[in-house]
Request: fold
Amino acid sequence: MSSKKGKEPSEIYYQKLVRNKIPEIILDQHEKPIFRILSEQEYQKELLHKLEEEVKEVVEATTSTEVLMECGDVLQVLEDILKHYHYTLDDLIDQKRKKEAQRGSFDDRFFLEKVVK
Reply:
């Protein structure tokens, strides 16, 4: 009886929404992706989880290049959320402009500490 010595297959669990080219990239690395297509309800929920994940990565970025890269990921998720709700990036920019006209932006760096009544 002969035994083959080699690496036992290992599994890494992710359980998260990934970009649509990730399964192909995994296959190109001679690994086997196990995935499923989410229902509409699951997709909606996972998009919001992905947004949280990507925003956290912006917060944790330590260089301006990392901030730019992570903001790109946030923008991708925002575009996919907008598409899911039948909006466009232009709709979002219009909404941003309306809010900015009403309430301003953050570029003056005001940090509200308290309000005295």
About this structure: The mean pLDDT is 95. Residues 40-60 form the longest helix (21 residues).
